[in-house]
Design a protein that fits this description.
By secondary structure, the chain is of the alpha+beta class. The protein has 12 helices and 9 strands. The protein has a 9-stranded antiparallel sheet with strand order 1-9-2-3-4-8-7-6-5, with helices on both faces.
Length: 334
Amino acid sequence: MSRLRSDGAARASLNGLPRGPAMIAQATGRGGEESSAMARVLLHSTLAQSPLGPSPLLAARYRPLVVSLFGELWQRVQGSRMAVYENADPERLGLCSVITILDTENAEQLLADMSELARFANTANLGEQDGGFDGATIDLLIAELGHSQYRRRQLASTKLTMLGPSALAAVERASTSRDAEIRLRATSIRDRIQWMLSEQRVDFVTGELLTRARPQFVYLPNQESRRGHAIDVVRIQIEGERSGFASGLRHLLGPNWNEVRLATVENRIVILLGSDTELFERAIEDVTNSRPGLAEQQAAASRSSLDIPSTAEFHGSAERLQAWLVGEGKPVGP
């Protein structure tokens, strides 16, 4: 277990995460603005690896898009906690499920932003003649590159990068703008899009993972009701879902490997990646009733105080991880 001491910042806590066989758990009390850069670096590094084989988890040209999308959303988060749980029935549910709880200023607005950004992410594979957003929308985003607020400038940069080839002509023109901020940002976006196109050609030759896939993010609001809360679903659609990659994720996360479930509880968002919906419901209930859950379990296991102030903490079970990695697939204990 590792903790970073709190110096006036919000305290990290595992509160709300349900009790259970957690292999890894972490929490941070810092806002997204403070930790966004580190989170982007860690995500980019993760996407360059793969637990399913020697190939990267995601082809190189997609990584900047996913990192940008994640970064924009992460900046709106004020604190978070996450745990990876070993599933009791791996044959039915997959090996593990991931529960994440996000503290936000406005949970409903964050979900609305997520839905909008998903629309931009879905155009990443489209060429200049394939449709997507119209020229007027792209022109408005170009103008936003020179906005007085940094957040607005950065969001416009992210959206234009996600648009990819369909925005290339517009950012090429903007790279000669008289406005220095617009010119510099447009030049950077142009270079990133051109790099993505060159990587696409390399991927086609080398056959890198997901080369021919077009990941699409479908945001589906109010798909279910659990413990009195409406559940939104983000479905990730990948061409060739019967590929070895999809098969590996299905083995890891179960039949719902390509779905993310989200529930809002006041200004918190409870998220499930995986197939253990009973675990998800317990998380919703624990957050609703302000139960310590995993925080109390970890404190009892380590015989430490619940009141140690910290801005970040990490917990890991070496025994569970070792058993999971060698594929024993057997419970290790409570």
